[in-house]
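Hi there. Long-time user, first ticket. I'm pasting a complex I've been working with (about 239 residues overall). I'd like to know whether the download I got is complete or cut off, because the file seemed smaller than I expected. Thanks.
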Amino acid sequence: MIACDCAVCESLDEKDKRFRSSILVESDTTTIVIDTTPDFRSQMLRAKVKKLDAVLFTHPHKDHIAGLDDVKAFNYFHQQPMPVYANELTENAMRKEFEYIFDEKKYPGVPEINVHRIHQTPVMIGDIPVTPIYVWHLKMPVLGFRFGHFTYITDANKIEAAELEKIIGSKVLVLNALRKEKHLSHFTLAEAVDVAQQLAVPEVYFTHISHQLGFHETVCKELPSGMALAYDGQVINIQ
Ligand SMILES: [Zn+2]
Ligand SMILES: [Zn+2]
Ligand SMILES: [Zn+2]
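Hi, the file is complete. Here it is re-exported in full:
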């Protein structure tokens, strides 16, 4: 955290150095990114992403959309607009916060995007099947996504039974866990562990972690088996 000198922010462990939450989902032919965080540019450079087929958005909070402008690099190299999948709430926020992208007469060099509205219905992006999962972030509906045996959920503090059903059978789950103390709109670590245990997913990683949660290494040791904190740059292979 900017201007913080707590032990976690000062930690020399690379696993305690966290960009905002985002993941890349790759198959043999298709690459999707979930959310364009304020760190999007650095994340794309770090992961050396040369081809991006689509962006999927979870919700319109700034820490999940602020990096959208930088998709223009992919426009330049792919010579086509970037397909962007968003629900109504996120699309409305994008139209407001990135007004210039939606202008009739665009300034040269601004990003080109094609917005696809995403609902409850599963969609195929390239060869990747995407099942939207609706979760609650206090009163805001947020989209989680299941891709085959892998489910990614961020910024939730409540998941209704019908949506939990959609996660069951996943081999790997990434779920948000902000810190140990109660929070208005994010699962605490204990709440996230509880959800993961109910779902009986064998391999679980926690993300969207605050510096207040503690050191990566220490917290990982406290977790039940099959669960760990996610870390920046982590690669998970799913069959
Ligand atoms: Zn700190
Ligand atoms: Zn949020
Ligand atoms: Zn967030």
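A couple of notes from our side: DSSP finds seven helices and twelve strands in the chain. Residues 59, 61, 137, 155 surround zinc ion (ligand 2) (CB under 6 Å).
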